[in-house]
Recover the amino acids of this structure.
């Protein structure tokens, strides 16, 4: 019997998870099919309940359902509980457990692909949505010295900072900032070792597709600029960063590494990450 894993989100037509996850299952000759479940918000409960049927192993969860699924699961563990967002569901028996592998994917990409150790780093995170939450918790866990959060809607940045503090992060090390173009942001940019864009600015098919959250003149050449947007591979921010002489990393490795961690939870097998990365690159 072919086992089934899927991804739930809305919209889903641009997701490349089905491509690189299926490539991994096929590479290891596992009889598993990965399916995209584009789902209206009112149907999320039905999709989660269907997972309890025998053929299903679990699913990935993407925008906008990473928080919505939490009360529908039997338990939520580890970072998913602290972050308040689930991107992977695993079924054991008929129990559904929620995990978050985004944070691990972010850190692994930073270390393996950019050779950057966040310990003691000064990091600036642009955005305060679900992706920013995973990135900020990952940086805090990895021992960053200072994490600044700048968001267009300041109250969201303040909420994220206060949630990190409630989770035990030292309040001195995590601070909200005004959005781009402010003088205080420029000062922080000058001292930043790492700048991470978690907003959808620059994302293909998004509302701010052609824009960059920062201009070359504001980016220090000593910083690593990390855009977690993966499509296009050269986002407007990465183009500005290169103009500034900074090192860059795009979002594709994070996407693949979070998927590899999910793959390992579903199958108990080591994920063939090189093949997954190649399949993901080819799909773009
Ligand atoms: P995700 O789960 O992918 O992080 P999200 O929770 O909707 O998605 O968060 C999107 C992030 O991108 C938010 O930080 C959002 O800023 P607001 O909180 O002010 O909405 C940010 N964002 C999206 N479009 C933006 C734009 N044009 N300018 C500035 N920030 C933007």
């Amino acid at each position: 019997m072919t086992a089934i894993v899927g991804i739930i989100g809305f919209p889903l037509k641009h997701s490349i998870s089905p491509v690189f996850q299926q490539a991994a299952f096929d590479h290891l000759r596992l009889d598993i099919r990965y399916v995209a479940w584009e789902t209206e918000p009112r149907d999320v409960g039905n999709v989660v309940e269907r997972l309890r049927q025998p053929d299903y192993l679990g699913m990935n969860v993407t925008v906008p359902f990473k928080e919505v699924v939490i009360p529908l699961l039997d338990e939520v563990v580890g970072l998913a509980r602290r972050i308040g967002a689930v991107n992977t569901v695993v079924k054991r028996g008929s129990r559904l457990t929620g995990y978050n592998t985004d944070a691990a994917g972010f850190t692994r990409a930073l270390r393996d692909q950019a050779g950057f150790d966040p310990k003691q780093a000064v990091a600036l995170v642009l955005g305060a949505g679900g992706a920013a939450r995973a990135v900020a918790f990952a940086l805090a866990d990895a021992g960053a010295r200072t994490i600044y959060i700048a968001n267009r809607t300041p109250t969201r940045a303040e909420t994220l900072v206060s949630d990190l503090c409630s989770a035990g992060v030292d309040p001195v090390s995590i601070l909200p900032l005004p959005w781009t173009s402010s003088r205080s942001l420029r000062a922080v940019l000058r001292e930043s070792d790492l700048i991470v864009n978690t907003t959808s600015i620059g994302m293909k098919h998004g509302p701010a597709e052609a824009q960059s959250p920062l201009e070359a003149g504001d980016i220090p050449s000593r910083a690593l600029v990390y855009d977690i947007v993966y499509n296009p591979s050269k986002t407007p921010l990465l183009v500005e960063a290169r103009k500034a002489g900074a090192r860059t990393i795009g979002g594709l490795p994070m996407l693949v590494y979070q998927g590899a961690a999910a793959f390992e939870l579903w199958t108990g097998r080591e994920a063939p990450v090189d093949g997954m990365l190649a399949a993901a690159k080819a799909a773009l």
About this structure: The two ends are 31 Å apart (CA to CA). The mean pLDDT is 96.
